[in-house]
Every structure is written in structure tokens, then in C-alpha cells.
Design brief:
The chain is of the alpha+beta class. Helix content is 15%, strand content 52%.
Length: 166
């Protein structure tokens, strides 16, 4: 009888105890870090000019929308997961749409580096397009973003120092 009660108690405990949550994938952790950007930012460019940037979590939490510049003229990028990959598509003001994939580091996400996958609507083989992006998270209110533009056969970086608007 006592053995039967112990067995029954073990079964009840096993059923009632939730299974351990699976470890979060690297792309999930990176995407959560990206979603922490949600809100309004002001970017100072290398030449001293200022650009407004906004981030919005959308599509029931499955995408992050980035707007760079004034409404109606803004360039837009969409970040999302694809299985265990983190992808982005940049809808550029020049009319093309490069896609990039992030290299997600192990451990805490401090920097995300997106590398070129492909581009649609490229006007010609020599037309410029965004070919890379690095996002460095300094703290909750400061981020450095380096866009790389492929132009004339060369990669030209453009640095944006972002500060969250308060």
C-alpha cells in the first residue's frame, strides 16, 4: 500500500511539475534585443546633421519596423526571425530592397552584424545599395548604427549615433 501511494504521488508530481522551458535560441535573444529599440530616437550623423528614427514592434510581435527620416520620405527596414536566423529587409529611398542576415553572438547581445544576402530592384549592376549593417547597443538609451553602402565597387560606412528621445 505504501509503495502504491509513493508511486501515485510520483506520477502526480511528474504531471503537475511543468517541464523546464527550452533555452532561448540565439536569434530569439537577438530579436528581443532589437525589439528593445521600440520608440523614438534621434541620430547624429558624422557630418553633424540630425535624423529622426523610429522603431515599432508590429505584426503581433513578429516584426520590428524601423523608419529613418521624415514620414512619407522615410526609408524603412523590417527585422524578423526566420527559424533560427535573424533577417532584415531594407526598403531604400533609391528604390531597391537589400536583404541581410545577422550573425548572432553567443551570450549577451551587445552587437549585431548583418551581412548582405541579396537585393531586388537593383537599377543596374553598378547601382548603389546597402550591403551591411552593424548595431552596437551601448545602453538602453544609446546605440551606434553603422550602415554600409556599396557604391562604385566600394563599401562606404555611414555611422549614426542614436539617442532615445525622452
Amino acid at each position: 500500500m505504501r509503495t502504491g501511494l509513493l508511486a501515485l504521488a510520483s506520477i502526480v508530481l511528474a504531471i503537475a511539475t511543468p517541464a523546464a522551458a527550452p533555452a532561448q535560441s540565439r536569434s530569439s535573444a537577438a530579436f528581443e534585443k532589437l525589439k528593445s529599440l521600440a520608440g523614438d530616437w534621434r541620430a547624429r550623423l558624422e557630418d553633424g546633421s540630425i535624423v529622426d528614427i523610429g522603431y515599432e514592434v508590429t505584426a503581433n510581435g513578429s516584426a520590428l519596423l524601423e523608419r529613418i527620416g521624415a514620414p512619407g520620405e522615410a526609408m524603412v527596414s523590417i527585422y524578423h526571425q526566420d527559424g533560427d536566423r535573424l533577417l532584415m529587409t531594407h526598403y531604400c529611398s533609391v528604390g531597391n530592397q537589400p536583404r541581410m542576415s545577422a550573425t548572432v553572438p553567443a551570450g549577451a547581445v551587445k552587437t549585431l552584424t548583418f551581412t548582405f544576402l541579396d537585393v531586388s530592384n537593383l537599377a543596374s549592376a553598378s547601382a548603389s545599395f546597402m550591403s551591411g549593417l552593424t548595431i552596437s547597443f551601448k545602453d538602453a538609451n544609446h546605440v551606434t548604427v553603422v550602415w554600409t553602402n556599396h557604391e562604385g565597387g566600394k563599401d562606404v560606412p555611414m555611422t549614426f549615433e542614436l539617442e532615445r528621445k525622452k
